[in-house]
Design brief:
Strand content: 25-35%
Helix content: 25-40%
Distance between the termini: 41 Å
């Protein structure tokens, strides 16, 4: 893989707008990641690395059936196995167990959640039925074979369409059908739009189910202790949201939140699937409480593929109404979302699909109809971009089909329908899932399209494609534009503290899983406080260090935590200058703070280290008088909450080559023109974008969780579940422009998911372009060789 950044233009060509707050010494600097030396030396500390005296090890008996009633669980033989300390089924923990929480409610949702161990039925292969706790992990695993579970096997529900059939068996006995939710929403007069259209294009689309596959699987270690404050629980957890886990555990055990501490050490990837709470995160602390010993569990890769929350899995039937000149009059979309067995994230994923589908285009009329189905598979949850790639795929494929039907250039039809820069803020007329209005804050959508076209060489593409076809090679070019909702609330917390040594400690409720928080948040803090980046230490993922927090997901940290850091750092700076004014006998407005040194403007010999101010405020000398309203200590905490979401945007383009005999697709070049408002660190922005593109390539070409007619997963190892490797990653060219958000002081928009969102649509567009001589239409991802060969053969037969 090689990476270029818009042919390495000067910074002004890529970062051409100033943020709302002045100052760009560290913000915008291409600094190396502070966390890398520690991680590259193997000094990272993950849950598997954490051990405490006396700990036991848990292993789980998991259902071999997709849908079955539990008749009997016999643990007697397992309890006699060497090294086994205890074995539990649901009756053994029922007095402590509660159903896992559904933390994202919606009025249209009929939520169902499991217990930490299955109580009466199992609803997917891999659901936890019993737990063995032993002196070592091998004894626990070996004892699983001694557990006897008697099941009454029930008919599986292997697709959303099957589950919604009138005669389908019910997955949840207390519901009259398998509908988790049904919802319509939209804007404008959709009936009139289609009645007045010159052209209507209809098509069905499918986005397959995939698995998140973070490098580090899930795991947790629970330890109970007694103190003068009562029983306390510490959970080391590979999670994206330690404060959420703390709230859940406090409720589960009836404890005040101060008695529960959740620590997320280094987390080796999350991508959304480690957000919220799983069966094992409830079962392991229960076992530790019942046994009065610490208990640890770390999943293996097979468990990860079987049980970790999965993603995508939607079937759409959509239509677009247009005038002859390509102007969109309306879009209608009806889809089934296969939710799996439970609803840990409510309607987040399918609802995101509906609000993302309009993209950067003006839609006078739009209607979305979602039906969410319970099926006998693992639950669906947000995974990098959380429902948005599905919406982008539908919209961008419809535009490609419309361009072909109308004889328009694919780029031109997009230009004619973009929301224009002078139209911001732009209200889509839709309601977000929290009831707020979907309003695009700022943007320049035509600009990123033109950047992408230039980077991909669009002007001479027809000649290059024709030359390749003359050689018997089938090359195609794809385009996809998108808008990404980022910076979701409700809030994030940050504390900035200057130690008496002058060291700056930054603590935040946001929890890193590889997003470079130690670097980017330190850059914001250093910029706004007036210290060096190397003097800032960033602490994350510990509820004992900061009382409030939300977590890292939904491209929110740079926006919400970043502005909390900015606000707290500015408050500390103001306090330091007020205190220094007394010590230097100068007015606060006459002081500067740079690189941790306070000086009197115009008199550089009169200066004071920030460390001395911190010492003074921590242990003031008798002569020091606190200014009115000033508290001891040099620190500040901000709980910053956004007024609305900030919307990043961009355009992707790709060139692919298709081998028509094997169906193999090779991506020759990929380009990304992206705008996330103020870029904190271009190096990190590049890495986030590239990582998103690679994950998007997996969704587009390789990854799929396949289930047979009995509900058994047939892609339960890396022999069958394909991930893109280094050899599959093409040269990637990047261009970051800046249209700052007016909704936050730093002008930041989120970045984490824009790299992944449009990739399946872009690759589908490119493959279809390559196979245009055959008339092949790409309507489903992943685009596997077998499917592509079948489509080519079907097209050949249709022409013969």
């Amino acid at each position: 893989m090689s990476v270029s950044r818009a042919n390495d233009p000067p910074p002004s060509a890529v970062h051409d707008a100033a943020p709302p707050l002045a100052g760009r010494r560290f913000i915008g600097a291409r600094l190396p990641r502070k966390e890398d030396p520690r991680l590259l030396r193997g000094e990272g500390v993950y849950v598997a690395d954490v051990n405490v005296p006396g700990q036991l090890y848990a292993a789980f008996v998991r259902s071999p059936h997709a849908h079955a009633r539990i008749v009997r669980v016999d643990l007697s033989a397992a309890r006699r196995q060497p090294g086994v300390v205890a074995a539990f089924a649901f009756p053994d923990i029922a007095h402590l167990a509660k159903p896992l929480p559904m933390l994202v409610p919606h009025r249209a949702l009929r939520p169902r959640m499991p217990y930490p161990l299955a109580a009466d039925k199992v609803r997917f292969v891999g659901e936890a039925v019993a737990m063995i706790v032993a002196e070592d992990p091998y004894a626990a695993e070996d004892a699983l074979e001694a557990v006897h579970v008697e099941y009454e096997v029930l008919p599986p529900l292997t697709s959303g369409a099957q589950a919604l059939a009138p005669d389908a068996p019910r997955l949840h006995d207390d519901l009259e059908d398998n509908v988790a939710a049904e919802l319509r929403h939209g804007v404008g007069d959709i009936t009139r739009a289609f009645a007045e259209a010159d052209v209507v294009i209809e098509e069905s689309f499918r986005v397959a189910r995939i698995s998140g596959q973070p490098m580090e699987p899930r795991g947790c270690l629970a330890r109970w202790e007694r103190s003068k404050f009562g029983d306390t629980l510490t959970l080391w957890d590979s999670t994206q949201s330690p404060h959420t886990a703390r709230r859940v555990l406090a409720d589960m055990f009836g404890l005040p939140q101060q008695n529960v501490r959740v620590i997320a050490p280094d987390v080796g990837g999350g991508f959304g699937i480690k957000n919220r709470f799983y069966q094992e995160e409830g079962a392991v602390p229960i076992a530790a409480r019942l046994l009065d010993r610490p208990v640890k569990w770390v999943e293996d890769r097979r468990e990860d593929l079987l049980t970790t929350y999965q993603a995508r899995d939607q079937e759409h039937h959509a239509a677009i109404a247009l005038r002859r000149d390509g102007t969109i009059l309306g879009v209608r979309d009806s889809f089934i979302a296969d939710q799996g067995a439970y609803t840990p994230f409510g309607l987040v994923v399918p609802y995101n699909t509906t609000t993302t589908l309009p993209g950067p285009y003006r839609l006078p009329a739009y209607e979305a109809h979602m039906r969410v189905a319970y099926t006998s598979k693992p639950p669906i949850a947000p995974y990098r971009a959380a429902g948005r790639p599905q919406g982008v795929l539908v919209m961008e494929r419809l535009l490609d089909l419309a361009a072909e039907a109308l004889g328009l250039d694919r780029a031109e039809i997009r230009r004619r329908n973009f929301v224009q820069p002078h139209e911001f803020p732009y209200d889509l007329g839709l309601k977000d899932r929290d009831g707020s209005n979907v309003v695009y804050d700022s943007g320049n959508y035509p600009a990123t399209l033109e950047q992408a076209l230039q980077l991909i060489g669009y002007a001479d593409w027809p000649a290059r494609q024709a030359a390749a076809r003359a050689e018997g090679r089938y090359l195609g070019l794809g385009l996809a534009a998108f808008v990404e909702s980022t910076g979701r609330g409700p809030f994030e917390s940050a504390t900035v503290r200057v130690e008496p040594s002058g060291r700056v400690i930054l603590i935040t409720g946001a929890c890193s899983q590889g997003q470079s928080h130690e670097t980017t948040l330190a850059q914001i803090c250093a910029e706004r406080l007036g210290v060096r980046v190397e003097d800032v230490s960033v602490l994350t993922g510990d509820t004992g260090a900061i009382p409030l927090g939300v977590g890292t997901y939904a491209s929110r940290t740079a926006v919400v935590a970043g502005n909390a850091v900015s606000q707290a750092a500015r408050a500390v700076r103001d306090k330091a200058l007020r205190a220094a004014a007394q010590l230097l006998e100068a007015a606060p407005e006459d002081l500067d703070l740079v690189d941790g040194v306070i000086t009197v403007r115009g008199a550089p010999d009169r200066q004071l280290p920030l460390a001395q101010v911190a010492r003074t405020l921590t242990a003031p000398p008798p002569a020091f008088l606190f200014p009115p309203g000033m508290e001891p200590g040099l620190e500040a905490t901000s709980n910053w909450h956004p007024a609305n979401n900030a919307y990043a945007f961009g355009t992707h383009a790709a060139i692919v080559e298709v081998d028509i005999e094997t169906g193999q697709v090779r991506v020759l070049r990929y380009v990304v023109a992206h705008d996330c408002g103020t870029v904190i660190n271009p190096l990190v922005a590049d890495g986030q974008t590239i990582g998103g593109v690679v994950q998007g390539l997996g969704s587009a070409l390789y990854e799929e969780m396949v289930y047979d007619a009995t509900g058994q997963p047939v892609t339960a190892s890396y022999l069958d579940y394909l991930l893109p490797g280094a050899t599959e990653v093409p040269p990637i060219a990047l261009a970051h422009s800046e249209t700052p958000s007016p909704l936050n002081p730093e002008g930041i928009k989120g970045l984490g998911e824009g790299g992944a969102m449009p990739v399946p649509a872009c690759i589908a567009s490119a493959v279809e372009d390559a196979l245009r001589p055959f008339g092949v239409r790409i309507t489903a991802v992943p685009i596997t060789p077998a499917r592509l060969r079948a489509a080519i053969e079907a097209a050949r037969r249709a022409k013969s």
